[in-house]
Amino acid sequence: MAWYLTGDETADALLADDPLALLIGMVLDQQVPMERAFSAPRDLRERLGGRLDVTEIAGLDHDRLVAAFSERPALHRFPAAMAERVQAVANIVVDEYGGDAGAIWNTAADGKELMKRLRALPGFGEQKAKIFLALLGKRLGVRPAGWEEAAGPFGKAGSFVSVADIDSPEAMERVRDHKREMKAAAKSAANLPAKAGAGRAKK
User: Fold this and answer.
1) In angstroms, rounded to a whole number, what is the distance separating the alpha carbons of residues 77 and 100?
2) CB 177 within 8 A of CB 171
3) Helix axes 34-47 and 62-70, enclosed angle (nearest 10)
4) How far apart are CA 103 and CA 23, in angstroms?
């Protein structure tokens, strides 16, 4: 199944083939364009000598990992903070899942347990965990019992609301349109109290 998250065939293929790359991409998917977040695992692999090894990342000198993230072009808007977060996730994969990132989702008994595992990862708030759970179900066929319910609105079939729904360039544009609409609505809602207050003050 082809992936279309980055616009680069090599980066997308890595996401499809390497659970650790996909997990790192999801960790980085905040406050930067989606394409940058999900192409970063490919770039990190190149900067670490052509390997994306979870044990190596977990045990890597902190400053060296930060340097790899900070090298231009930086892997994230906040390279030092995200290097630390990725290393923390890598340590959990090593300590709790035998060094197999895919075991996080492939061994979960049901959607509820998978959601709990994802929420326990550094940087995974409730919404990010639900989106990733939906991505696993829709794109990788990881569908333990109750996965759709655990993913909430992001698990709904036929939706175009998150990265979980991108299976073509056209789907990417539909997801972008949805996000723009949500941001516009949120901005409008945020301005309503101020305007209402100003109106009362004039009276």
Assistant:
1) 28
2) no
3) 130
4) 12
The domain defined by 9-152 folds into: Endonuclease III; domain 1 (1.10.340)
Question: Which tens digit of pLDDT belongs to each residue from 52-100?
Answer: 999 999 999 999 999 999 999 999 999 999 999 999 999 999 999 999 9
Quick one: DSSP state of residue 74?
P
Listed by start position, the domains of the chain span 9-152, 168-203
If we measure between CA atoms, which residue out of 128, 121, 179 comes closest to residue 151?
A: 128
Find out whether 60 and 87 touch, Cβ atoms under 8 Å.
yes
CA distance 132 to 26: 7
Task: Kindly report the pTM of this predicted structure.
Answer: 0.87
What integer pLDDT is reported at residue 171 of this predicted model? 87
Q: 91 by DSSP, 3-state: which?
A: helix
Percent of the chain at pLDDT exceeding 70: 94
Query: pLDDT tens digits for 118-133?
Result: 999 999 999 999 999 9
Phi, psi of 24 (to 5 degrees): -65, -40
SS3 52: coil
